[in-house]
Amino acid sequence: MEDRIRLEHGSGGVLSRELIEQVIYPVLKNAAYPSLTDGTDIRCSVSMCMSTDTYVVDPVFFPGGDIGKLAVFGTCNDLAVSGARPEYLSLGFVLEEGFLLEEFSRVLDSIAKAAAEAAVAVVTGDTKVVPAGKGGGIYINSTGIGVKRFTGNLDPAEFVTGDEVILSGPLGAHGIAVLGARERLPVGDAILSDCANLYPLCEELFSFGSALKFMRDATRGGLAAVLNEIVAAGSSGILVREADIPVNRDVAAAADILGLNTLEVANEGVFIAVVAPEITSDALKRLSKHAEGRSAAAIGTVVKEPAGKVIMETRIGGRRIVDLPRGLLLPRIC
Amino acid sequence: MEDRIRLEHGSGGVLSRELIEQVIYPVLKNAAYPSLTDGTDIRCSVSMCMSTDTYVVDPVFFPGGDIGKLAVFGTCNDLAVSGARPEYLSLGFVLEEGFLLEEFSRVLDSIAKAAAEAAVAVVTGDTKVVPAGKGGGIYINSTGIGVKRFTGNLDPAEFVTGDEVILSGPLGAHGIAVLGARERLPVGDAILSDCANLYPLCEELFSFGSALKFMRDATRGGLAAVLNEIVAAGSSGILVREADIPVNRDVAAAADILGLNTLEVANEGVFIAVVAPEITSDALKRLSKHAEGRSAAAIGTVVKEPAGKVIMETRIGGRRIVDLPRGLLLPRIC
């Protein structure tokens, strides 16, 4: 096996087979993916959930993670916030001619490790190779299937005034870590992506039944995008308290220097939940048992007016609108 | 809405939302995909099948189809040859900065039309934008879930001497159509890709039970790749008869001029089945009721020796080995 991807690795011939049989499949093989066929049988229950995401992050490796870990946890997290326990994953690789086999293998190892941690079985895959200059080293689509464990309604239209907004962890680490690595900014390797498996945290909230009203991970567009999506879908507004939003000090400092708003920076290990106020303290207690939930906090409240808007009470007591992010935030952040 | 994809269309902000809500979702919305959430609930039965494929075809539009039609039928066909009726589809788009919105919309329309024809519901999706020079206009991952309708064993290890190899249609049209369009070769618009939904044909064979022993669509690497995969997985050989392999005359002529071997050219509407000899004529009769199966033919036989090899009996009575394709066939053919 040579050390770089060649176009022939995508041709369906001898080299394609070698790449799949010698490089990819040995790393990803598991009991639910017993052989290389066009499709794999999976055991389902009646109520499942399906989610897909393509990862185009640049650079492929960044402090705290890489595109492989991101492709597993990112899609599993979308299932988790939909109330489903991730079960099966498909992987679609688009490799660019010239990509180093050694780097591909590191990504595959990272996928295998993350899949084991998330207890999800990779069951089928596909590998394409595009000519140099037509890709980004490696892009990965992962599509996940999960079993519904929470069957309540997660619909912002059902929010009532006084419902509380919980943030599961500190903002901004993923975006700053990736941007720092890409632009070789002096943010240091101290800031690691928060890329993590959120299912255990989400599961803590399932037993609250109808008092759990909404969950969403705050990826592209950050907290600002999620809160604006919520208010756009419902008939209420949201008031958030800047002083209560957890942000790590080094992330805040780096964001300041770079002129980035931590509310808009992508996260890969943080979700927003909206809950009935009577369960807030219990929910925070449960989340804080987990490493990723140690800084979980109630950061805001559902309000009647102004409907459809996200308002922030600033540290100095003022109020400002938090808009849906406009323009170019950080391309290829996930 | 401007007329070209901008990086901001992938940022998670206002333009992302506009692209999804105004361009993508209106075309793909259906009863099983009632709202834009991170994951969509799907109804499953116990025995399902999952398959994934990423499409990087160049050019995006070609005689007889486009990347959208390919992304739907290609993945549905992988489920069909696995014995499953396609039910749900996810779509992951990687758009390149500068790609024309008008072309994207044509692809979306084509997806919607193909999904309706295949009776498959698009239930979730994702859209990423990469900078100019980091993509190929548009790449599409589609991942499909199907209900198992044929639960027999489709394992080449179970073949016995005398089993027959059926080809469902004429070879080579997809590869020649795409190559002709890409290289502006004078093959003319008369050669259309064979891109088609194969489930109705596959379903015809399910009722044969254990006499149906194997199915596989002949995409990248063509017939040569599939037959070699079969013999590599079993303990028999295959003898194919060149004179019995259907190839349309204009495709054969174009392949000759281009120096291509039709056995190795990609197809998107042709599959190989291996069946017990007593059902061959019945199977061919059933396939030929469908437009795509009009030229279905028995093209070869499972033989004891030489095990692990595909041998072709040529038109002039000689014999030669059909190898797994080597080297670069046609990059970005699907």
> What structural class do you assign from the helix and strand content of chain A?
alpha+beta
Q: What form of chain A results from the Cα inertia axes?
A: globular
Number of domains of chain A: 2
Q: List unreliable stretches of 5+ residues of chain A.
A: none
Largest interface (C-beta under 8 Å): A-B, 79 and 79 residues
Tally of DSSP helical segments of chain A: 8
CATH homology-level superfamily of the largest domain in chain A: PurM-like C-terminal domain
Spatial strand order of the main sheet of chain A: 9-11-8-12-10-13-14
CATH class of the largest domain in chain A, anyone?
Answer: Alpha Beta
DSSP strand tally of chain A: 14
Distance between the termini of chain A: 30 Å
In angstroms, what is the radius of gyration of chain A? 21 Å
CATH topology of the largest domain in chain A, anyone?
A: Phosphoribosyl-aminoimidazole Synthetase, Chain A, domain 2
CATH architecture of the largest domain in chain A: Alpha-Beta Complex
Order of helix and strand elements from N to C terminus of chain A = HEEEEHEHEEEHHEHEHEHEEE
Looking at this protein, list some descriptive labels:
homodimer, 334 residues, alpha+beta, 60s Ribosomal Protein L30, Chain: A, Phosphoribosyl-aminoimidazole Synthetase, Chain A, domain 2, 2 domains, four-stranded mixed β-sheet, 8 helices, globular
Description:
The structure is a homodimer of 334-residue chains. With 334 residues, chain A is α+β, with helices and mostly antiparallel strands. Chain A folds into two domains: 7-148, 60s Ribosomal Protein L30, Chain: A (2-Layer Sandwich), CATH 3.30.1330; 156-321, PurM-like C-terminal domain (Phosphoribosyl-aminoimidazole Synthetase, Chain A, domain 2), CATH 3.90.650. Chain A contains eight helices and 14 strands. Chain A has helices spanning 14-28, 67-81, 101-118, 173-183, 199-206, 222-233, 249-258, 280-287, and strands at residues 40-43, 47-55, 61-62, 65-66, 84-96, 121-130, 138-148, 164-167, 212-217, 237-241, 271-275, 297-303, 310-313, 319-321. In chain A, the strands form three sheets. In chain A, strands 9-11-8-12-10-13-14 form a seven-stranded mixed sheet, with helices on both faces. Chain A starts with 13 loop residues before the first helix and ends in a 13-residue tail after the last strand. The mean pLDDT of chain A is 91. β1 of chain A pairs antiparallel with β2 (47-55) of chain B, so a sheet runs across the interface.
